[in-house]
Amino acid sequence: MIRPPSDLEVLALGGEPVEFTWRGRRYRIHAILSRWCEAGGWWHRASDGQYRPDDQARSSWRVEAAPEGALVVFELEHDDSSGSWRIVRHV
């Protein structure tokens, strides 16, 4: 289930997440398992070759994080145009 951005606060250093607070618990990121970017609105650039800052580009990270005890895997997503973060999935 995707949570609203107000439910998540992310501390990022140099654009990379290092910890986050979710549902009132603080999670420290122990490992970044993967990272990828998705460009929204690619069809606009394909037709006219121009970049638009509102094209909904997103940067995503799959991370291992834990408050205490067992590590949990989360997928965090950063909206490059608004600067907001969200949790896309957790396992």
Describe this structure in words.
By secondary structure, the protein is mainly beta. The chain is built from one helix and six strands, in the order E-E-E-H-E-E-E. The protein has one domain. 8% of the residues lie in helices and 55% in strands. A hairpin with a 5-residue loop joins strand 4 and strand 5. The termini are close together. The mean pLDDT is 80.
The low-pLDDT segments are: none
Q: Specify the structural class.
A: mainly beta
- The succession of helices and strands, N to C, reads EEEHEEE
The amount of helix comes to under 10%
- Please tally the β strands and state the result: 6
Summed over residues and divided by their number, the pLDDT gives a mean of 80
Salient structural properties:
single chain, 91 residues, mainly beta, six-stranded antiparallel beta sheet, 1 helix, 55% strand
